[in-house]
Amino acid sequence: MPLPGEGSPQERRYSRAVGSLQEELAVRTIPELKKASSRAELDAITLLDVLGLDRRPTFILDVSLPPASDDAPLEPIYVNPSLADAKELLGILTGTGHSHDKFANNVQPTSRFKSWLRKPASDPDGALKGSAYMFDGFVWSTTTFDHYLLVSGLQLSIGRTEPPGSAQSQPQLSLSIDPREHNQPKNYPQIPRAPAHPPETPVEQLPRLSPAPVSAAHGRFDITLDPPPASLSDHVRYFRSIDWSTTPLGPMSAWQPQLRSLINMIMNDNNPAVLFWGDEVTMIYNESYVEIIALLHPCMGASARVAAKEYWVHFQPIVDHINATGQTWTEHDLPLFVDRHGFLEETYFSFQFVPVLGTEGQLAGYLQPLVETTKNNILERRVSSLVEIGSQTAKARDLDTYWDLVLNTLIINEKDVPFALLYSTEYQEVAGTSSISSPGSAFELELCTLRNRGSIAVSANHPIAPSTIALRSSTYVFIPYLTQAAKSRKPVYLPFDELKMPDGILDDIDWKGYHDPCRSVVICPVLPTTGEQVQGFIILGVNPRRPFDDDYQQFIHVMSRLLATSLASVVLFDEEMRQKENAIGQAARIQEQLLAELKLTEKKFQRFAERADVGIFITNPTGKYTYRNDAWFEIFKDAADSDDLAGAWGNLVFPEDVPFCETLFTKLIIEKTAVCFELRTRMRWTPPKDPDAEGHTSEHFVWILCSAYPELGASDELKEIVGNVTDISKLKWAEDVQKMRVKSALESQRQLENFIDTTSHEMRNPLSAIMQCADGIISSYATPDGHIEVPSPISYSNLLEQTIDAAQTISQCALHMKRIVDDILTISKLDSGLLIITPIDAQPESVANHAVKMFESEAKAAGVDLKFAVDQSFRELGVDWVSLDPTRMLQVLINLITNAVKFTRLEKTRMVTVSVAATTEEPSSEAGGIQYILPKLAEDDSHLQEDWNRGPTLYIRFSVSDTGRGLSVDEKANLFARFSQASPRTHIHYGGSGLGLFISRRLTEMQGGAIGLESEYKRGSTFSFYIRARRTSSALLRRSSMPRVFPEDVRHRPHTPKEIDRLLNPDRPAPVVRRPTAEQAIHSDIPAEALGHSAESMFAELKRTKSIPDTLHVLVVEDNLVNQKVLAKQLRNLGCVVNVANHGAEALEFLKKTRYWDHSAIEPPAALSNASSLPFELSLILMDWEMPVMNGLTAVTKIREFQRDKLLKAHIPVIGVTANVREQQIKTAMEAGMDDVVGKPFRVTELLGRMRGVVAGIAEERLERVREQDS
């Protein structure tokens, strides 16, 4: 390769042109030198004076001072004012600033510029233009004198509008590039001489030049003559070196003038041209044509058919056409790929095949002049691509759309963009300036992300196209250059041969365009023109069939500017939108806050509305619903399918209420006033269960309370109707119930007053009888003056009979009063929920038979025929032992038998029949038969429910039929109500409190049954009730004890003559019951046989074995002296030996004097001998509960402690005698150590029987233990 200045003639001419231009400019810029009058004045002007006046940036270096390193900054010893004013340019030259070139090369341009200054012959980046160097938009030339280097720059007009740091008025040089490509050395700009006249000079003022005549005086220039001209180019010398005599053209001297003229014309043509002469189409071409034929050169004088046989087949049809027509063939913009710079280059040429005629008009040859149109075609393609980029990206309104449009438009020009990667950037805020942050940015570039479908010719995650690039930690090959591009904000050109690229990184790339691998890429930072922060990078592959020349750079530059402008539009649009948002932001935020609060309130209201029991609705002015909450649909189930008011209300209201609803709607629509009203709808409503509403079977409808108001607009127009609906059915029903309750309360008050009157009457009568009987007894023994006379035997017999009769009357009156008190106590327990049902195994047939026997004497006295019958169903089901509460069952049965006897004793026909039946299905009311009372007032008892779950159940039904007066319809209606009797005069004729049947009803319902009746006035009545029971096995062989507490409402009923006989014959043994348990406490009135015991045989066995004494020794512990005296006297009358104590402490002291106290455990032998006569006999203790000093529970606890400590030799029975007879109280007493509990008041004969039973139970246990020891 020739050195600079010794190259081709074109290069030398270029260098000379530049030198001449610099000289002319230098002279023109120093007008003071032209005004010098003498050589002496000129010599007085120094070089620095001249440089100070020069407008070109100039500086001087001392080359004798070697730099510290190749990258050391330039240290000029002089800088002229023009350069000093351009501080930015000065910084660039010295290496402290940034270049203004379109590209920031991968090697710093300043470093290469410095290398050129030190070694002017080197050309590291192709910027050397002859003796000049292009850097940062200036053509720099140097002059060396002594050890100083003077460097001066001349600004180019390409890519810069004005020199950096200079004023607008500073004159600029207009330099242009030759439109013909490759006529000058590669990448050399053409700098023609400045025009003789400024461009603004009018054409008509230009001097007219007359053409000079062509004459021989100008010399000989024909290169085909001998001797040739003195100055010949290498190509002409090559042309003349051909031995033309060996060609079809013959020796050059024999050529025709026409041929000579054509050859001279071709050789002097700067455009490629070739002449095909003769039939052999011998080739003669100029120097410019060599670049086109490339490797075919040299082929001067050869036949085109031979030298270019592979291509001639394409030209032969053209030749044939010309031969046939004699007309020129023209071809425009023909793409040709020529190798003129070491690679296959994409070029475009327009050419003609011009026929050359001989002297006689025949075809002598073909002239093919070519004009290269590469630049125009490439420019057209690139301009079209740039227009598309600009127009398409301008449509973007956000970054995502922008990046998609960028990639879509780049794909269009795949020849100039055969490869591309599009990355968006992510920044991290930093405190200081980072090495990889954009200038002026407080954010550090951290990550680059490949956009979705953001690549051309390569797939994502290819080694050259990673999805993400971490600029701090990644080993990606382009990272340094991405950082450089981000810093400089300029494209970076990267030839692959200068990069250390990993092996295989370019494999599997589907190169676009001509499918040739790219030799270089350009990294283009994408940032808006209005900002400093890089938003992304485009890595573009350079067209491998085009040189990366100024045009290519300009294309990249313009594309970057277009992208920057479009991006600025996007950013500005985004900023504009942000500003608009900010403009309304303040109000919007306040509005949002208010809306948020409103929404919160609305949500709260909506939640309230959705959860509220109030139905909320909204309609439009026509009455069509636009909103209804769940409560609305819950209320208006029948109108859920209607979507307007008219349809909904038409289904809801009664016909008579339609005009009222229409009036209300008209008031809303026309008068636009709110309305509020109550309305009864056609929807049926079921009220809750209410005992007070029993018997009221009237039909109920849904009542609503509706409020509605019109929502008006700004012009007072109706926008919508908002309303709410409240279901007031329950309120209306409650009002009715309240009215009914008030009425019922008044009625109850009246009944209560009647009950009080009746009760008072019922209690005052027996009280009066008691007082009269007592007075009669007293008066029978004493005279009016108080003296007691000794009666005669006859009068004594009468006196004794009168006294017994009076005592029996007193007993009957007391029992009558007790029944009233017991009924009141039972109803109180029912109301307070304290009455508990306790199921045990029992025989219902035996219990019912026992109830009948209880009334035999009373019925016989009243002349009533009392019978007991067992229904066939009872036998068919084989009912024997069942689990139920026999006491509560007996209580109901006794109540019914009492009423039956009471209401039958005054009739002519007096008959009462008690029957028992069974069924597996729950009995129900029968037409013309028993009508059971519904609905039930009480739920099934929980204890019974648990018991029923343990086995199969059935229903036991008891019926009591009588031939009494019967009941009318009105009397039956109130029969089972509280404080009710058949008629107001019932108690006058029959007595009673009016609570018995009400109590019976509650008790049967608690046992899973019901009570009812069948009655006909004057014909008699049948009362029937059934209860649910569980089948069990036989209990005859059980060894359990009898329950011992009398139920308050049955324990004092009239008893059989057997009991009266027992009262008159106390020595006769009473039935013995076994020692009870707490769970059996309330079943003491049930016969032992009904519960599986044989009391009489057990008592006889114990008497025979002497296990129980004939005479009971009793300790009565009672603080009430009257009760103590009476009880002790009664027990002594019945044959008992009685001792008394006033409280528990005295009872404990008495124990120490009995034979059961072990004196040897705590007393010395002497004391034992003295106390041998002291021990008392003791069978059991009757212990009161509430006493001073020490109560009964504490005393019995102490007794059991003595027993455990062996201070007592045997178990001493203790029976609690108290008025505390609730179940929990009984359980507490039993747990403290009592053996039984008897409630006050009681009959002494019953108490004696209980006493004997407890003693017998203790004795039985002792006997069993002895038997076990003997066995």
Number of domains: 7
How far apart, in Å, are the first and last alpha carbons?
142 Å
Q: What Rg, in angstroms, do the CA atoms define?
A: 68 Å
Classified in CATH, the superfamily of the largest domain is Histidine kinase-like ATPase, C-terminal domain
Task: Tally the beta strands.
Answer: 35
Mass-distribution shape = elongated
**How much is the average pLDDT?**
77
Estimate the strand proportion: 15-25%
Please summarize the sheet with the most strands.
Answer: 8 strands, mixed
CATH topology term of the largest domain: Heat Shock Protein 90
Q: Architecture of the largest domain in CATH? A: 2-Layer Sandwich
CATH top level assignment of the largest domain: Alpha Beta
Unreliable residue stretches: 1-8, 17-36, 122-126, 157-217, 982-991, 1036-1075, 1078-1082, 1093-1099, 1101-1106, 1165-1172
* Residue share in helix: 25-40%
Number of helices: 37
- Helix and strand content put the structural class at alpha+beta
Pfam families: HATPase_c, HisKA, PAS-like, Response_reg
InterPro entries: 2C_system_His_kinase, CheY-like_superfamily, HATPase_C_sf, HATPase_dom, His_kinase_dom, HisK_dim/P_dom, HisK_dim/P_sf, PAS
Region (Disordered): 177-207
Modified residues (4-aspartylphosphate): 1184
